[in-house]
Amino acid sequence: MSEIASISNIRHENLVKLHGGCIDGSSKLLVYEYMENNSLAHILLVVGGEENRAMLSWKARREIAVGIGRALAYIHEEVKPHIVHRDIKLSNILLDQNFAPKVSDFGLSRLFFDS
User: Fold this and answer.
1) Per the database record, which ranges form the Protein kinase domain (predicted)?
2) Does residue 96 have an active-site annotation?
3) Is the pTM of this model over 0.85?
4) Counting beta carbons within 10 angstroms of the beta carbon of residue 89, is it exposed (0 to 12), middle (13 to 18) or buried (19 or more)?
5) How far apart are CA 43 and CA 101, in angstroms?
6) Are 47 and 41 spatial neighbours (Cβ–Cβ below 8 Å)?
7) Which of 24, 87, 96, 114 is catalytic?
């Protein structure tokens, strides 16, 4: 459960909050905060097509991009050891009730120590 080790102690407004996790035999479970608006992939690619894309103004899209950038800057520069996500994609960007982005799924992440 490398994801728990990677993000259990970090906090940022644009990172999904991990509430906990457990292992039961070969089953692993992570519990995150609930994201009312699903993922960016869901909004842009799955449900409603053009209608859903229209829900996101250019200002909202810019704010989503900036939020993702802030989250990545935080884990790359401020967290020690640094975390490299390695799997940024639309389905790993979750959206809260205000469409604020939350980077999720740190399963492929790697920790890097300053040398």
Assistant:
1) 1-115
2) no
3) no
4) exposed
5) 12
6) no
7) 87
